[in-house]
Amino acid sequence: MSLLSGQSPAPLSGQVWAFRSDTSSAHNLLMIAIGIQLALMLPSLAALVLDDRLLNGVSVWSKPLKFQASLIMMLGTLAVLLPQIETTSRNGWGVWIACLVAAMTATGEILYITLQAARGRASHFNSETQIEGLAYSLMGIGAALLVLSSLVLGLYLLTRPAADASRGLQLGGGWGLVLGSILTLITAFALGSGQIGGPGHWVGGVRSDAGGLMLFGWSRSGGDLRVPHFFATHIMQALPILGVLLEAIAPRLLIPGLFAGSLFSIAVVAGTFIQAVMGRPFL
Amino acid sequence: MSFDMVFSAASTLAMCGWLALVLLPRWPALIAFLRYAVIGILALAYATLILVYFFRIQGGGFGSIAEVRTLFSSDAILLAGWIHYLAFDLFIGTWIALEADKHGTNRILQAPILIATFLFGPLGLLIFYVTRAADMALSKRKA
User: Fold this and answer.
1) Do B51 and A120 touch (CB under 8 A)?
2) Distance linking the first and last C-alpha atoms of chain B
3) In DSSP terms, which residues pair with A54 in a beta bridge?
4) Between residues 103 and 122 of chain B, which touch chain A (CB distance below 8 Å)?
5) Does B126 touch chain A if contact means CB atoms closer than 8 Å?
């Protein structure tokens, strides 16, 4: 009798999201988490047009949109890399818990960031009320757990690859997740500690997102610790893409190419980090 | 876009959905369109209004009539509430239509139940419940 059972034609349920044949429980966790991000991203995009409230000189919706986009990318990367892990491990507890932690922390973060935007208040570096201070600390723990879950999945990729794994995706993904996680933890800790240039991500310059770099909002008048943080997290996508490209074009150069790519990534993160600490804008 | 424009756009959209539900054949594609496109757009409009305006209302909430009245003193939240009615009523209407089809209820008899749901939501649902119960009781006695 129920609408959800029975005769529903349901063109939007089931296999639409599963672009891979992976239907493991871990994969489903990631897919649901991506769905939640998308479900909040759609009204946030509309709100960006409609809402005239500003925070740090830009729309209150700019932060949730940036987080929704990047968390979709992060969870999507994990989902794409998952099938490269050997089946027994992929269906085991370790991978499942890592994906559960990633799904729960990403969901928790975005729920709070979106709620705070709707309230017209800051989510990060906000300790004006006791609850907001607590929530900011919890977000810090959540973000660390989220990064650790990708570190765990990266180690699984490196130590337990599937027999039929695409070498480029498996190695690039493994290196990318491990290196990206470690550098993200370091840059995020530097950013969140408030020890460099005071609380916030700005170092010198005008402490506002207005007039910042297009799309990113990075400061153009002073240093911005979000720059190295951005490059650190996106190593998790850059190296798997590099791996896939190398495998297609020059498979023999896969390992040296990934090695060079890793060194280049570290250099970019270190370079932009030093630039930010010195109080100089990225561009 | 003014709230008045959103109000008429949402009402027109829902109205077209109801006309299609009452008059057109129950093509699976039509039902899917109503469920996901029409109701989906209404849900998105509702979600956007709530995200943008809900927390601006001082003293608003769901805890007492006074709090709810304060909420609805804002045109934006009043509009959101109206779209909530439109979306959920149409969703229930679609469910009633499919259930009625499943039990072989004539389309001409379905129409008044659907129109009652369109106009007064839960009243139409109540009529559907009671007619279903009566139909089941009678058909049992026949068997």
Assistant:
1) no
2) 59
3) A59
4) none
5) no
Q: From A184, A177, A187, select the one nearest A236 (Cα to Cα).
A: A177
Select from A122, A105, A104 the least CA-distant residue to A113.
Answer: A122
Instruction: Tally DSSP H helices, then E strands, for chain B.
Output: 7, 0
Do residues A171 and A254 touch, judged by C-beta distance below 8 A? yes
Is A14 within 8 Å of chain B by CB?
A: no
Interface test with A, best of B26, B42, B48 (most A CBs within 10 A): B48
A83-92, A94-103, B88-97, B123-132, range with the lowest pLDDT: A83-92
pLDDT digit string, tens, across residues B25-69: 999 999 999 999 999 999 999 999 999 999 988 888 899 999 999
Burial (Cβ within 10 Å: 0-12, 13-18, ≥19) of residue A102: buried
Per CB-CB distance under 8 Å, the chain A contacts of B54 are 118
User: What is the distance between the alpha carbons of residues A206 and A239, in angstroms, rounded to a whole number?
Assistant: 34
In whole angstroms, what is the distance from residue B103 CA to residue B93 CA? 15
SS3 of A30-55:
HHHHHHHHHHHHHHHHHHHHHCCCEE
Average pLDDT, chain B: 92
Question: What ipTM score was computed for the predicted complex, to two decimals?
Answer: 0.80
Q: Which three-class secondary structure state does DSSP give residue A270?
A: helix
Distance from CA of B47 to the nearest CA of A (A): 6
Structure tokens, A32:
């649901």
Residue numbers in chain A where pLDDT is lower than 70? 1-23, 197-198, 205, 211, 214
Helix (H, G, I), strand (E, B) or coil at A224: strand
Check if the beta carbon of residue B97 is closer than 8 Å to that of residue B26: yes
Residues A137-192: pLDDT tens digits? Answer: 888 899 999 999 999 999 999 999 888 888 889 999 999 999 999 999 988 888 77
Chain B partners of A50 at a C-beta cutoff of 8 Å?
1, 48, 52
Count Cα neighbours of A132 within 13 Å in the Cβ-side half-sphere. Answer: 15
8-state DSSP, B57: S
Contacts of B50 in chain A (CB under 8 A): 43, 118
